[in-house]
Protein 1
Amino acid sequence: MKLLIQTTAILALTAGAAVAMDTVRMGTEGAYAPWNFLDDNGEVAGFERDLGDELCARAELTCEWVTNEWDSIIPNLVSGNYDTIIAGMSITAERDEVIDFTQNYSQPDPSAYLATSMDADIAGGVVAAQVGTIQAAYLAEQGVTVLEFATPEDTIAAVRNGEADAVLADASFLAPFAAEEADLMLLEETVLLGGGVGMGLRESDTELKEKFNAAIQSMKDDGSLNELIVKWEIGETF
């Protein structure tokens, strides 16, 4: 993570100041259902697609969707490959040193453990997590042996094949796997991490941040944000 911050800090020095945008490019991972994923047509779908389209409409912005791998999603925002991150990214002090965030559009989603046994050793065993996530950082802080993978699917595969005793990720991401596969189960222990999920932007794009903040607040005020949260089952409502 320190390397990520150093790299993006350097990129921030070379990135130009915010300018008026004809099209706002919405950067997401496209691999973290139900937050964001690719549908059968290869189009971005999920909670954040519905949310992002509505936010752009309310802010009177023309937007297009761009996908990017998670481990380089912050550097590529700072270097100008797209204009926002809307990818289930939790607001943390460490990330806020590099980029800016809107107000949160979801509450902190409990992080949960998925394993093949309710007796899985999550303290003394090996736990998988996606690289660059708050879950990976938390496991490292706890002194747990953590295996980091580039994609969330790889973390699940590590549990299936016995490479890891469990995986730690957002409960909303893990729950469908536990529901669909008899050999996978959610452990009782959960942990709250981060300050909720927000949109990431370059620190120079203050006007764009203000527009999205106003749009998010309007959705909170009229209840439409809560409707999307319930529809996609991503956590607690506001």
Protein 2
Amino acid sequence: MKSSPGLHLKTFILIVLLVIFSPLGNVLLSKGMKNVGAVSMSAPGELISVFMQVFTSGFIWLGIGCLLLFFVAYLLVLSWADYSYVQPASSISYGVVAVLGHFFLHEQVTPTRWAGILVICLGVFVVGHTPPRTTEHN
């Protein structure tokens, strides 16, 4: 199957958006929930209070917005590229998650995790050098 340079550019742009919006959305949700605090399931009144804190948190809403943008980009890229290409290529977001977690959430990322992330990123490099679509379009 022949592919056009425009298809590669669109696919690249959307995968970059996937790699940005998914980790950013999840990190913002994490930040919002850390601000809310530990959720206790002991009394229904406490759950209502937690829901109010969650649904009035700016971090939570920004996270939801980023994840919605991720989902739209994901749907679009899957419409013209193989899932076996998109999913591994978007896995570089694991590296973005670690960087955001370290700098934005002040989490400790161990050397073993960094090594695992490096292996994933090397796999992304290999997948990135294959055609985005190998199946014929029906």
Protein 3
Amino acid sequence: MRTIRIQAEDFDATAECETIAAGRGDVGAIVSFIGLVRGEDGLTALALQHYPGMTEREIASHVDEAETRWPILGTTIIHRVGRLVPGERIVLVAVASTHRAAAFAAAEFLMDYLKTRAPFWKQEQRGTGRIWVESKESDENVALRWAR
């Protein structure tokens, strides 16, 4: 099972994880990551944009890559767009596998991709103005471990 959604609405992570394993006896582990908007340095909101269709295809290609590296039984990726305020959920990555090691590794690989390469544009909003977020060198360095 594979689910990739880009949406403005919030999501229910528990329900999404239950859906991955529903009716399956071979799922031994589900690893999930939920990312939240941080309210650091006076951040009042984060506005996210994407190209509908293209973003989903790009994410799907990275799920394909994860499936060649690990024995994945199911994947759910939900990424929110629009205006989000500190404390709101922004992303869910959930991966099911027979064993936890594969689920952990695939979830980390997919999250590193979303953080550094996925076609989203983020604008931080503060009382002092708005700035577009550039990728961080530290995130890029972490993602290099997955290069082949």
